[in-house]
Amino acid sequence: MKKRHQQKLLLISLVLFLIWNVPFVSIFDGDYQLFGFPVFYVFVFLSWFFAIVASYIILKRFYE
Amino acid sequence: MSNYILVSIIVFYLGLLFVLAFFAEKHRNSRWVNNPYIYVLSLAVYCTAWTYYGSVGIASKSGISFLAIYLGPVIALPLWIVLMRKIIRISKQHKISSIADFISMRYGNNRAIGAIVTVTCLIAVIPYIALQLKAVSETFSLMTEKSDYVSKGFFDDSTFYIALLIAIFVAFFGTLSTDASKHKKGIIATVALESILKLSFFLVIGIYITYYLFDGTTDLYVRASQMEGFAQLSSFGGVENGFNWIFTICLSFFAIFLLPRQFHVAVVENDNEKHLKKAIWLFPLYLLLFNVFVIFIAWAGNINLPSSVNNDYYTLLLPLQEGHWALGLMVFIGGFSAVISMIVVSTLALSTMLSNNIIIPYGFIKKLVEGNPIENAKNIKNMRRISIFILIILAYLFYINFSAQLSLYSIGLISFVVISQLAPSFFLGLFWRRGTAKAAKTGIMVGLAVVFYTLLLPIVGQVFMPEASWLQDGLFGFAWLKPSQFFGLDYLTPESNAFMWSLAFNGLSFVGLSLMAKGDYRERNYAEMFVHHENYENLQEGAFVWKGEAYVADIKRLLNRFLGETKTDRALNIFNRKYSISETEEKADARLINFSEKLLTGSIGSASAKILLSSVSKEKPIGLVEVLNILEESKETRATNRLLVEKSEELSTMANQLKEANEELRLQDKLKDDFLDTVAHELKTPITSIKAASEVLEDEQMPKELRRQFLENISNDTDRLEALIHNILDLEKLSGNRAELDIRSRKINATITKAIKGVEQIAAKKRIQVEFVEQDYLEGFYDEDRILQVLTNLLSNSLKFTEEEKGVIKILLKEEKNAISVAVEDNGKGIPVEDQNYIFEKFYQSKNQNIKKPKGSGFGLAICKKIIEGHNGSIWVDKNFRQGARLVFTIPKTK
Asked: What is the spatial distance between Cα B300 and Cα B659, in angstroms, rounded to a whole number?
C-alpha cells in the first residue's frame, strides 16, 4: 500500500479522535432522539459506521 | 435450574471446545483455521465478560462511559496499517513470543526490563482474570436460583472447578511445542468460535428485549425517559466529565496494543500480515454490533427489574424474570464463552512471559544448560504448565478476597491503567531511537508506583483497614496527597486520576532519562533495528553488530541442548547455505550469534538466549559510533548489491530485445529475397514470350494473319508486364507507408455503385448477376480511389471464379460500432480451406499455377490488404460461409 493511501487511514483515526472528544462531542449533548437512540449515540454510532465504510473502501481499492 | 444440570452443560461445552481445538491442531494447515476472519474473530477476545455484562451495568447506572472502552480501539485500528504492520514484521523477524519479549528486545535484550514488563502484566491481568471468574460465579448462582450463594471454601465452589478445567485446557493446548512463537491453532480456533457465539447471543438477547419484551427502540426510549435520572444516562455531562471521557478513550487505545492477550492474538498468532486488510474494518464493525443494544438492555433493566439487583446482570435477569430459561441459558453460555476465551489467551500469554522472562533467566538457566534436549523441553513445558495453574489460582484468590468491593467495570479499568504504564516505552521505543533501557525501567516503575498509591492502595486499604484516615485526608494530613484526588484535582474519577498522573510521571522519567544519558551500543543496535525497521529487514542477521570470539562447536553444543541434534543440524545447514559459509568454519561471526539467539528465543525467551550465548562466547564491547558505522556500511553494501543486480537484469533484458530484433530483421531479409525471386520469375515469363515472338517476327515471309497474331501476343505480354510492374510499385509504396491516402468522409453507397459500374460490362458478358442493397445513410472515412481499387479487385476475383449464367455476386453492407463492414460474396467454387490463411500473401496464387491458370498478377489481394490496413481496417475470409467465397473488410465509420 502506498504511503499516500496509508495516510488516508491515519486521517480517519485523527478525525475520529477529534470528533469523539470535547469540545466537538458536546455539540451532540442534547435530549433529542432518533428511532429511540439519543442524539449522542446517533452521532457516535453513525461516525463509527462511516469510519468502517471509509476504511473498507480505502483498503479494498489500494491494499496491495 | 439445578446445579448439576448447569455443571454438566458447562462440562459438555468445554468438552466441545477440547474437540474443536484438537481438530484445529490436527488440520493446522487447513484453510478453515488460516484465514483473515479467524484473525479478526480472535481479536474479539477484547470483548470479555466486562463487555458482555459490565457495559450494561454502566449504561444503566452512569450512562455513556461504557462506550469509551470501544472507541479507543476503533480509533486505533486504522493506525494498524502502519503501527501493527511494523510490530508484526519486527516480531516475526526476531521470533518474539510476548509483549515482554518485544519491549526487552527493543532495549538491547535487557533481562530486567523483561521481568518488569512481566510483573506489570501480572498486576494488570490477574485481577482481570478474577473479574471473569466473578462473572462466572455470579451468573452461575443467578442461574441456579441461589442468589445468596456464598462460597465456603475452594472445594464446594463450582467456580473453582470451572477455573481448574480452563487451566487444564490451556495447559494442554498451550504447551504442545516448546517454541512459544509457534502458533496455537487449536486455541485460536476455539477463541474464534466463542467470539461468534458471544456476539450472536448478545444480539439475540438484545433483539428479544427490545422487540419482544418491549415495543421497539422508540417505545423503550419513551418509557425510559419518564424514569428518574434518565437525562444523566444519555448525556455527556459537563466539560469536566469530558476529561474522564478522553482518558478512558486513551486507556482503551493503549489496551488494544498492550494487553498481553491482545498482543498475543494480534502479533504472535498472526500468520499473514495481509490479514490486517480485513481486520482494520471488520473488527470495528464487530465492536459496533456489540454495542448497539447495550443502552436498550440497560433501560429495559431499569424499567422492569427492582433496583435491588446487580445492574451488571440485566442481560441475564431480564429473560429469567420472564421465565425464559432457555434464553437465560443462552445468555449464560455467551458470557461463559467470553470468559473462557479471555482466561485462555491471557493465561497462555502470561505463562509464556512468566517462564521466558522471569523463571528461566532468573532461576533455571543453569539447570537448563546442563540438561539434555528431551529433559529441557519437558522442563520448559512443565514450567509453563505450572505457571498456568499458579496464575489461575492467584486470580481465584484475588476474586475471593476483593471481588465483593469492585464492579466488573472498575476492575477492568484498573487493569487498563496498570497496563498503560508500558505505553511510553512501547510506543516511543518504536519511533524514537534515543529511548534507553534505564529510562524504560525507571519510567515503568515510577508509573507503577503512582498507580499503586493513587488507585490500588485505596482499594487494598478499604478492605484491610477501612478506618485509615489518610485515604480521606491525604498522607500525613496533606490534602494534596489524597490518593484519589492527587494535587487536589477533584473532578476526575479515581481511574482517570491515576491514569493521568502515572502516565505523566512515567513518560517524563522515560523521556528525561533517555535524554540525560546515552544507552550502550547493544541497546542502540536494537533501537536501530526496531525504529528503522524497513532498512534492516533485508539485512536480517546482518543487522546485528557483534565483535568478539566464539566457536561454532560451542554454539552448536548449546543449540543441541534445546533443539536436539537433528533440528540443530538442519538449522545450521540452512544458515550456512544462506550466507555461503563453509561447513568447516570454526569461528562464529555476528550473524551466527544472532541466528542462534533467535533460535533459542522461542523456547527460553530473548533475555535467556542472550545470557546463554554470552556464556559460550567472549564479546568485546565496541563503541556506539562503531556500531552505527558498521550498520550504515552493511546497509550501503546491501544497497549497492541490489543496484548491481538491477543493472545486470536490465542488461540481460536489453540483450534479449536485441536478439529478438535481429531475428526479426533476418526474417524480413529472407522475405525480401523470396519476393525478389518471385518477381524475377514473374517478369521473366512475359519477357521470354515477347523475345520468342519477336524472334519469330524476324522471318519476313510469315503470313500476315500469323504475324498479326504474334504482334498481338507481344502487346498482351507487354500489358501484363506493365500491370505487374505497376502492381509491384504500388505494393511497395503501400508497405513502405509512402502512399498518401486522401481520407475523407464519403458515402459508401456511391463508391460501391461506382465499383459495380466498372465491372458491369464483364458481368453482363458472362451473364452474372451483381446484387447490392443500398443503405443511404452510411458514411465512412476513406480514400475513394483506393477503396474502389479494393472493391474492383474483389469483384473481379468473384467474376473470375463464378460460373457463367449461374453466377450471383452480392455486396452486403453492415454497420458496426465504430466501423462499416463490406462483404463481397459469390456462389462460385469458394476458397479451399487450406488456402484461406494465405490468400492475402504476395504471389500466393502463383504457387498454384500448375492447377489454376493465372489470371492476374497475384498481387491483388496483397494490395487490398495493405490498403485496408492503411485505413486501420481489416480484411478476412469468412470461414463459415460455405456456398462460395465471402470476403469481408472493414473501414472506419464517420460518427
From this structure: 81
The grid coordinates of residue B685 equal 515469363
* Residue labelled with grid coordinates 521470354: B688
How many CA atoms lie within 13 Å of B872's alpha carbon, on the beta-carbon side?
A: 8
Closest residue in B to A45 (Cα) is: B288
**B220-255 core/surface letters (b: 16 or more CB in 10 A; e: else):** bbebbbeeeebeebbbbbeeebbbbbbbbbbbbbbb
Percent of chain B with pLDDT over 70: 92
Identity of the amino acid at B279 = A
For residue B240 the three cell numbers come to 469536566
- Between B863 and B145, the more confident residue is B863
Chain CA centroid to CA B324, Å: 44
Q: What is the pLDDT of residues B556-580, one digit of tens each?
A: 888 888 888 888 888 888 888 888 8
- Phi/psi region, residue B580 (left: phi>0; alpha: psi -120 to 50; beta: rest), is left
Q: Report the distance separating Cα B301 and Cα B780, nearest Å.
A: 79
Q: Which helix (H) or strand (E) holds B414?
A: helix B408-419
DSSP letter at B30 equals S
Q: Which three cell numbers stand for residue B1?
A: 435450574
Residue B218 to residue A36, Cβ atoms within 8 A: yes
Mutate to test the interface with B, among A20, A40, A47 (most CBs of B within 10 A): A20
CA distance B625 to B520: 11
B210/B202 Cα distance (integer angstroms): 12
> Between A25, A29, A35, which is nearest B217 by CB?
A35
- Answer whether B281 sits within 8 Å of A55, measured CB to CB: yes
Average pLDDT across chain B, whole number: 84
User: Is B235 within 8 Å of A29 when comparing Cβ atoms?
Assistant: yes
> How does pLDDT run across B763-822, given as a tens digit for each residue?
888 888 888 887 767 788 888 888 888 888 888 888 888 888 888 888 888 888 888 888
- Three-class SS of B521-538: HHHHHHHHHHHCHHHHCC
Is the ipTM of this structure higher than 0.90? yes
- Specify the pairing of strand B769-772 against strand B808-815: parallel
Distances in Å between the Cα of B86 and the Cα atoms of B74, B285, B422, B772 are 19, 23, 18, 73
- Closest CB to A52: pick one of B67, B219, B288: B288
Q: Which residues contact B697 (CB under 8 A, 6 or more apart)?
A: B707, B710, B711
Whether the CB of B491 is below 8 Å from some CB of chain A: the reply is: no
How far apart (Å, rounded) are the C-alpha atoms in residues B67 and B70?
A: 6
Query: In this structure, what C-alpha cell is assigned to residue B323?
Result: 421465565
Q: Which residues contact B813 (CB under 8 A, 6 or more apart)?
A: B748, B749, B752, B773, B775, B778, B820, B821, B822
The count of other CB atoms within 10 Å of the CB of residue B643 is: 10
| Closest chain B C-alpha to A13 CA, distance in angstroms | 5
CA–CA dist B823, B813 (Å, integer) = 7
Grid cell at residue B549: 570470539
In chain A, residues with a C-beta closer than 8 Å to the C-beta of B292 are 45
A7: Cα separation from own chain's centroid: 15
Interchain contact B63–A (C-beta under 8 A):
no
| pLDDT for B656 | 94
Return the axis-axis angle of helices B185-207 and B294-304, rounded to nearest 10°. 50
Please tell me whether residue B310 adopts helix, strand or coil conformation.
coil
Q: What is the CA radius of gyration of chain A?
A: 14
Rounded distance between C-alpha atoms, residue B550 and residue B536, angstroms: 24
Q: What span, in angstroms and rounded, lies between the C-alpha atoms of B380 and B603?
A: 8
CA distance B268 to B285: 23
Model confidence over B264-308: pLDDT tens digits? 999 998 988 889 999 999 999 999 999 999 989 998 888 888 888
Question: Which one of A29, A31, A53 would you mutate to disrupt binding with B, by most B Cβ within 10 Å of its Cβ?
Answer: A29
Å between B69 CA and nearest CA of chain A:
12
